[in-house]
Design goal:
This protein is of the alpha+beta class. The chain has one domain. It contains five helices and nine strands, in the order H-H-H-E-E-E-E-E-E-E-E-E-H-H. Strands 1-2-3-4-5-7-8-9 form an eight-stranded antiparallel β-barrel. A hairpin with a 5-residue loop joins strand 8 and strand 9. It is globular, with a radius of gyration of 16 Å.
Amino acid sequence: MELPGNEKYKAASNSRNENPWLNNLGLSEHDLIDLRNVQTTYHVQLNDHPDVGYHFRMWLLWDYDRIWGVFDMGYTKGLFLVDPGPKPSAIHKSPFSWRGVEKSATDTVLCNELITKGEIVIEPGNLEIEGTFEFMAGNGEPGGEQCAFRGKPHFGPSVVPYSLEGVVDEWNDYGFLEEEERVRQYLSLEELAADLRRRDERRAASGF
């Protein structure tokens, strides 16, 4: 289900619907829709502050077999990368790396894969998510021990107001000293194979 005529959602909707990994899984239409709909806008609650309610926001986008996340946790905003993303009909608990800034000090970038990391649980079909950010306090301030959260999809169509290209560019801007990422689903077959090997080597080295 789409929002017709709304240009700010068009890029993310198109990249999801054209995703070759999703489209070649051989899923039933129902299971494909469930997996595609992981990409949406989420209302997020911080576990340490349930009184605030689902006041914060998170957006997930498919990029081939991985998920990019955009988050605003009040004090901290930024991006995270789940690679690989969820599989069909399975509860998926995955590590992620995050990069971002404290909103009151945007000239100081938070980007260190040893500490700016976390975990997220994604269950296609259920669509509620939960997880933790490390190096973030329970109220969303950067530098704390852990920020646990849970999220539920917004009511309505599965829409995201960001493009894959814009998210990947921002990720690279935050990590200007790190190896650059590219939009995976737009790579050539040769480039894609090399990128997946690089991902698998990194995961093996980190113990995942």
